[in-house]
Amino acid sequence: MWLRQNDFGSSMQNKALHRGPPAVQTQRTTTPFLPIRVYVRTPSNMSALFGIVDYAVFGAMLVLSTLVGIYFAFIAKKKQNNTSQYLMGGKEMGVFPISMSLIASYISGISLIGLPAEMYVYGTMYSMVIVSEVFVSFTMAYIYIPVFYNLQITSTYEYLGMRFCRKVQILGSCLFILKMLLYIPIVIYVPALAFEQVTGINLHIVTPVVCVICIFYTTLGGLKAVVWTDTIQMFTMVFGILAVLTIGTVNIGFSNVISRNAETGRIEFDVFDPDPTIRHTVWNLVIGNYFYWLASCSVNQAMVQRCLAMPSLAKARLAVIILAVGITVLVSMCCYTGLVVFAHFYNCDPISTKVIKKADQILPYYVMAISKTFPGLPGVFVSGVFSAALSTMSTGLNSMTGVIFQDLIKPNVKYHFTELQSSIIMKLIVLIIGTICVVLVFVVEKLGALIQAGKSMAGITSGPLLGLFSLGMFCPWANSQGALAGGLSSVVLVAALSGFSQSAQAQGRIKYPMKPMSTEGCDSAINFTLPIEHIVYPEQNVLWVIKLSYLYYAAIGTITTMIVGNVVSYLTGPDDVASTNPDLLAPCIRKFIKPKKSGPSESNKVNHEHVF
């Protein structure tokens, strides 16, 4: 018996729907119940499977991360007691640790658990995002990073103050802080959920404990501790996911992995339908995700800060290239792992049988299912997922600290802080925002699919931020009024789209067809009935624009910012192109600008002096 899942429930839908528009408006109709004999694989006590070896592996990862923070805080020759060391690592970091840190920061627990769940439920279309990374890395390395590196700024958003005005800088800083405060709780929730599943320990207990460790080494060790713990955690997460997919492939066989997924239509890369309301197509995965990843990498303080910690621009570019390769490899591994998991449960779906409640629990459940013959595997897996989360969290805390101190505190306080005082203040900031993130984790439990929830929330700020920086670098005539109007209008628009869309999904007015599941091969039988959920098409009660794919949010935000910014700049009097400081423009734009011999405009000079 094959079932098609709908948001953790079961329904008997026509198989042809799996490639139809995912934003399906459904209406439940009163129908007779169809008696179905469903088989349930009843697991043994799962918490007992997380044994001494697993706890030892997991504990070793946490202890090692803590020791790194202690080393850079108390033992290393160069202590983290000044701004340059704490935020920029003294600008002497090597390519290897920086590139590993970039990869580890980007590949969060959402990727390690969310991507396999995405493949399991929806198929391989999402893996097409890899294509956009090639273009993102090129754009980042040769357009955005050179501008930031040549300016030698600490906070990325100082650029907005230099190019436009102080108000735009504050807007950019606040958008970044908002983005990280929305994103980090999701990142923390993922490993806590996995840990609860394999140990039975409530995530409300696990979350504060692990976060305290992350806050501890981030507070003490600064950027160097974050980068080197990221490097260690990077190898931990790779080893964890590699162990799971290797064992799974050996047990099932590569040919069976492919054939079982192909039979259910999970292997597909050719959805070229231009309809923007379809959840995943080649167009929104490549074009839409390009804007999202570009915003997440090229103008994100968390990523740019590491590139600026390099001793030369050439090394910063090399780190970006390695980042692209690393993301491609890890995303591919996570996607393939999802295929392995489905091949294992292809005739006994634990979601249909209610053994697990959410699709995001499928990978931890799979690990526990095969761990009886591989002691220590759950510990390795959970360590990998936690490593991904901790690296993202520590990076976020460190970068938010830099932005808050450099952009919001330092310019608004007349008192001149000493380097030691600055270091103490930044450590206090880490403690405060770390605590806020822990509290917000409990809100995340109400969300649905992690991948979509994470990108929908991040898209609210990612698009407007990318639009502000792009407006400044590509439009030398754009003024501060245009930047403010463009940024604010973009935030309002994307927030409205995301909010209405999430609300419609929560109410069941928008649903996404999932791939078929089977329960024919389960071990023990339980009789119960499942209702037939007919898919009907009532009057259009959800606006077309609300059904847009979440992958377009960043693109919409970017384009809106630039269009409104240019229009308002024109109406209020555009800046003199020749007077714009060429250092603030993208390299490809500078060659078309002939600056006045007198140098940068007076406004550029004032902003530059104000920031520094």
UniProtKB/TrEMBL annotation:
It is found in: Cell membrane. Its main location: membrane. GO terms for cellular component: plasma membrane. GO terms for molecular function: symporter activity. Keywords: Cell membrane, Ion transport, Membrane, Sodium, Sodium transport, Transmembrane, Transmembrane helix, Transport. It comes from the Eukaryota. Pfam families: SSF (PF00474). It is a multi-pass membrane protein. GO terms for biological process: sodium ion transport. CDD domains: SLC5sbd_NIS-SMVT. The keyword Cell membrane applies. This is Sodium/solute symporter. It comes from Apolygus lucorum. Belongs to the sodium:solute symporter (SSF) (TC 2.A.21) family. Residues 1-26 are annotated as: Disordered. The chain crosses the membrane at residues 48-74, 95-113, 125-149, 170-195, 201-223, 235-254, 318-342, 363-390, 424-444, 456-474, 480-500, 550-571.
